[in-house]
Design a protein that fits this description.
By secondary structure, this protein is an alpha+beta fold. It has one domain (about 10-70): Ubiquitin-like (UB roll). About 25% of the residues lie in helices and about 25% in strands. The chain is built from one helix and two strands, in the order E-E-H. Strands 1-2 form a two-stranded antiparallel ribbon. It starts with about 20 loop residues before the first strand and ends with a helix. Bound molecules: zinc ion. Zinc ion (ZN) binds near residues 17, 18, 20, 46 and 48.
Length: about 70
């Protein structure tokens, strides 16, 4: 399991609704009709996923690369 999507700073965040600390969780994200699973910081209370723009862009670039390779 790759951990590169989560930086230590991400897990220092708290959910703005619950005030709970975020925990790493496997989250399925859909992009361009393709689903991929990424480990992202998630609130254990309400399930809110924190995805930074940096991670989102990196992940989408990765997916586009996969699509191009087909
Ligand atoms: Zn929450």
């Amino acid at each position: 399991m790759k951990q590169e999507n989560i930086r230590p700073g991400d897990l220092a965040w708290k959910c703005c609704k619950c005030g709970l600390k975020l925990e790493p969780a496997l989250v399925t994200v859909e992009y361009l009709g393709n689903e991929f699973t990424a480990e992202l910081p998630r609130c254990p209370g309400c399930g809110q996923v924190m995805i930074s723009e940096e991670v989102a862009l990196g992940k989408m670039a990765e997916v586009e690369q996969i699509l191009e390779d087909k």
